[in-house]
Amino acid sequence: MWVGGGGDRPSDPHENQSHVPGCHVPECENKTLGSVSSEEWQPEWIGWSLPDDSKCHRWQPVDGACGRQSFDNATRLDCEDFIYQAGSSIVAEFDLACQEWKRSLVGTVHNVGMLISLPIMGFVSDKWGRRAALIVSGCGAGVLGLIKSFVTSYPTYLMAELLETVCGASVYPAAFVLMIEWLGVEQRILASLVLGIPLAMGAATLSLLDYLTGYWRTWARFAYPPSFLLLLYPWLLPESVRWLTIQGRLTEAVQIIKRAAKYNKVNIPQDGLEKMLLNEAEQVNNKVEEIIEDESLFRALFKYGALRRRLCVCFVWWASAVFVFYGLAVQAHALSGSAHANYALVASAELPALLANTLLLDRVGRRPLLTVALLITAVALIAIPCLPDGQC
User: Fold this and answer.
1) pLDDT (tens digit, 9 = 90+) per residue, 336-383?
2) Can you state the angle between helices 305-330 and 296-303, rounded to 10 degrees?
3) Where does a domain end: 36, 67, 85?
4) Do residues 174 and 134 make contact, with C-beta atoms less than 8 angstroms apart?
5) 269 and 277 in contact (C-beta within 8 Å)?
């Protein structure tokens, strides 16, 4: 599951929901720990047993009773146990109240899995094909996502999250590379739009699914099985002709191009087709040999100042975009209103950007468009703290 042009989605909806915990006050309630009904969430004794400005502390009891004079409002104690208004998320199930670092660690582990995934699936893509990488990544994420829905502890959830991301984080790159190699360089912007729209809509749909299922385990058991449809791709989706050509499998490449030509009602001479593929394979192999022999290509980074500056600028741009996107995605639960609606809005926020990118990139250019986008983002982020309380 990938978000946008770069690739990943925000965290799963059940990971973003705050489900604010309540401190368990044994002097005032005899309930077992866990979730409570909405009617029981705001009892009268909360006003004198818990401070208004903290969900992680309670006033020190004086006499073991639950009266107004039974608590010392000058001494705070850390809450030892918690109750939850809703038990549908991992926060309630694994008792992560007032342990923000544990909730944040889920996102950190997810991002680490992305870093591990890209080189592994890149090797799979080059070795066994773009289609194979897409199928392995998608189906692997489906299997591990289902396994994740059965875990019974926080550490095993983290491990399942890591492994699922290692498999699933490369679905978008594999699909994007396959589409690019089929469409050609001049249609890359269109390819980004074609892949980006269903990706953003799918991520927003996950929020609706979470709302309908109401429980994170049920959500996972509905969300992951559709990935097994990728097992049909060997019969539905042709392999990249470019990859087949590089591997010397010209016969298969010719057959695929013939099927595409027949579907599009285009006549391509047999001899000319094979000659074209042979020439392309030779050109690619010559480029690879030049890269291996010419070490100056690697040393150019240290030799040319302009190249170093461009690399540093691109690094800062990319890091800034990632920090902003994931920072906003992780904090979406802090917004007022429905957590599900907030998640859907974050997931679908890329749609206007994708459309603007498609319409303006070739007309305006990369650098001006990127500069304007970053400036607009900066102004919006600076304006957030200036909003009055209750407006965000």
Assistant:
1) 777 788 888 888 888 888 888 888 888 888 888 888 888 998 898 899
2) 80
3) 85
4) yes
5) no
State which residues form the domain around 33. 21-85
Using CA atoms, how far residue 345 sits from 320, 329, 341, 352, in Å, is 21, 10, 6, 12
Are residues 188 and 180 in contact, defined by beta-carbon separation less than 8 angstroms?
Answer: yes
At 73-105, the pLDDT tens digits run 888 888 888 887 766 788 888 888 888 888 888
Q: What is the DSSP string of 347-389?
A: HHTHHHHHHHHHHHHHHH-HHHHHHHHHHHHHHHHHHGGGSPT
Q: Which two tokens stand for residue 22?
A: 């309540």
Q: Are residues 221 and 360 in the same domain?
A: yes
| Torsion of the alpha carbons at 220, 223, 225 and 231, rounded to the nearest 10 | -140
Identify whether 310 is part of a domain: yes
Helix (H, G, I), strand (E, B) or coil at 318: helix
CA distances from 173 to 125, 130, 131, 133, 165 (A): 10, 10, 11, 9, 13
Question: DSSP assignment, residue 289?
Answer: H
